[in-house]
Amino acid sequence: MPELKKKIKFIIDRFSMIYEFWRDYCNYRRWNYNNPKVVTRAAQESKILRQTHMIEKGMSLSEPRKGFGQQKIAVLFEMMDQYLKMGYPSDGMPFQDAIIVLNAYVDMQKGLGYENAAMVEKLKTYDTYRIDGLTAGIKYDTRANLMSNIDKPFPEFFYSRHSMRQFESKSLIIEDVEKAIKIAQKAPTACNRQASKVYLYKDKATNDALGELIAGNTGFQQEVPNYLVVTADVSAFYDTFERNQVYVEAGLFSMALVEALHYYGIGSCILQNGEYYKKNKKFKEICKNIPENERIILFVATGYYKNEFSYAMSLRKNVEDVFIVK
């Protein structure tokens, strides 16, 4: 009888798992912003933010291309006009971010000897909405200045880290990465299960193969000496309600990791892993040593800071838009 009860419970648990994944699918299908029925402010602002980031990412490369991104800018203008047409506030951070980044783009391109008169005129139509005093776009900096923050109070150190797309060509020293990982291991972990792992490949061929497949590194993959592959072990979790815990675990771990890397003079850029079965299978074929029970959560492009470089300075939302008290 006890064995029968165990079997029944097992079957019920499996049906429960299917049901919960189905509910996840229904919720995501309903609310992701590719659904044309989703016209929430959050959806429209997220579209603008992602499109703006495509522009600022291109600006943050070692050698930005003359006149790059014109089609993407045209799409961004359409999104901004639609946003205003829907009655959403022009003083919202995403809308302001787009205006500031586009103006910074115009200035940068003038320096490269390029100007699109029609685009400049279109951009001027948003001048009346622009709020003075906000800063976004690209910042030029030095390694010495950036590293001067490591011994300052925590907020200053934390604010000093930025996503990097320019690196020195030399490979990472394993001991430096080990020190950073040791710090990252202090990140919160569910019931101390410590499901996160980091894989580093020293050979150029593996890193180049990963770079060819990873999304989000266009324009700077040739500058990345090493990718860190962050995984989480699915077998560390036991029930349906923990089905997303691998992302929580590895996400917290990775946040601590990139800050620790920064402390040791290593720049980084987190690159998300698209959850497609066939693509993940290819990643594991390239890596050769990641077992089936581990899920690749994200990649981190890493390298030592150059002496001089630039990076994107993206605006963040107002605290009152993130912190809700009732």
Instruction: Count up the domains.
Output: 2
Uncertain segments are none
What would you give as the CATH superfamily of the largest domain? NADH Oxidase
Task: State the CATH class of the largest domain.
Answer: Alpha Beta
Total strands: the figure is: 6
How far do the termini sit from each other? 51 Å
Sequence of secondary-structure elements:
HHHHHEHHHEHEHEHEEH
Kindly name the structural category: alpha+beta
Question: Roughly how many Å is the radius of gyration?
Answer: 22 Å
Q: What's the total helix number?
A: 12
The gross shape turns out to be globular
Q: What CATH architecture of the largest domain would you give?
A: 3-Layer(aba) Sandwich
Q: Could you report the average pLDDT, rounded to the nearest whole number?
A: 95
Read across the widest sheet, the strand sequence of neighbours is: 2-3-5-4
Q: What percentage of amino acids are in beta strands?
A: 5-15%
Give helix % range.
40-55%
What is CATH's topology name of the largest domain?
NADH Oxidase
Largest sheet: 4 strands, antiparallel
Task: Please specify the SSE layout and strand pairing.
Layout: H1 2-31, H2 41-59, H3 70-85, H4 93-111, H5 117-124, E1 137-142, H6 143-147, H7 154-159, H8 174-184, E2 196-200, H9 204-213, E3 226-233, H10 245-263, E4 266-272, H11 277-287, E5 294-304, E6 308-313, H12 319-322
Antiparallel strand pairs: 1-6, 2-3, 3-5, 4-5
Helix pairs in contact: 2-3, 2-4, 8-10, 9-11
